[in-house]
Amino acid sequence: MPKISEEHRAEKRQQIIAATLRCVARDGFHKTTMAAVINESGLSAGSVYTYFRGKNDIIRAIAESGLTTIAEAITRFTPSHGSEVAAPPPEVAIEAATQHLLDLSEELDVDLPKIALQTWAEAARDPEVRDLMAPEARRIRDAWRTYAEAAIDAGRFRKDADPERIAMVLTGLLPGFILQRLMLGDVTPKIYAAGLTDLLAQPD
Amino acid sequence: MPKISEEHRAEKRQQIIAATLRCVARDGFHKTTMAAVINESGLSAGSVYTYFRGKNDIIRAIAESGLTTIAEAITRFTPSHGSEVAAPPPEVAIEAATQHLLDLSEELDVDLPKIALQTWAEAARDPEVRDLMAPEARRIRDAWRTYAEAAIDAGRFRKDADPERIAMVLTGLLPGFILQRLMLGDVTPKIYAAGLTDLLAQPD
């Protein structure tokens, strides 16, 4: 296949995913039908169905695109094993991860926190959607686990700390950031990170 | 109004709320119509409409009943100002709050984490629902803030720590517990609390 065609394919896919994200952010998950996606994308039905057979194909693509980059952002500030660079403290890591989520929203021009809430609800309702999204949740947890291992190596946590359990707590902080931003509107990456600093600091 | 009538009223309301919770957990938010609630409750349409004029009235009641008890659970382990009892460490507080959520699910015989995810998604989509739920989110944050103030008094955090910021992080841990339980199924209150202990412990 010539290279131009592959690029074209990737571009079309991205165009359909972006249209779906806009639909979900605006109308919620249930009202986002294939017809709505086709309409929003400005492409023909035939063209959209060439790339995605149905809504679940698009959800899978969204899960793989959007959330993977969160895992990648976490991996980015985790030094590789044996590296001389020390892992940053957890508050720096949380600030970077939450800021990445906001930057990505701006870059894609969609409200990713809103979309995240829609897809979680759908995963709670539909086991098929949950199974589509679980590997991505696992990838985010694994990225935090690798960070926690590096942070233990760097002496930021006790040597006998369990990196998987630390990863659960760090993973757990992301949905709470998203939800409080929606409900109360006052949380920023900087303030959230400062709260973690206050929580972690030893009393005088 | 005679007392028996008020009790009867409260019982009917609770019966309708419980029916709504079962509908939402099973079918999601969008498919939970007033007709579905009436059917699930086993009451007449006239009876249900006596208590709630529409779905938003029921959502408000759910928000006020379910989430308030989370705030109450947090308040329960926070000693009142001037008390000689010290506030428990944050990992004990998080374990109690997450365990309360699971106990309450069992007691009400509905999957509260699932319902929480449905209502958050609806709040993200519908500003009216968000406005209904925001005071409850605020109440949970305030309960954590009061806890954080007591924990600062008890010397668990630095004297200059900001209780509101600490409350943001502790509030933030609850949605992440719910979501990881759904997606990965491996988080328990005890393990989550142990993760927080590992995160908070000073390195050797």
From TrEMBL, chains A, B:
Q: Name one GO molecular function term.
A: DNA-binding transcription factor activity
Keyword DNA-binding part of the UniProt annotation: yes
Q: Which InterPro entries match?
A: BetI_C (IPR039538), DNA-bd_HTH_TetR-type_CS (IPR023772), Homeodomain-like_sf (IPR009057), HTH-type_TetR-like_transc_reg (IPR050109), HTH_TetR (IPR001647), Tet_transcr_reg_TetR-rel_C_sf (IPR036271)
| DNA-binding region in chain numbering | 33-52
Give the highest taxon in the source lineage: Bacteria
| Entry annotated with the keyword Transcription regulation | yes
Annotated keywords: DNA-binding, Repressor, Transcription, Transcription regulation
Per the UniProt record, one Pfam family is: TetR_N
Domain HTH tetR-type: residue ranges: 10-70
This chain's protein is named TetR/AcrR family transcriptional regulator
* Organism from which the protein derives: Nocardioides turkmenicus
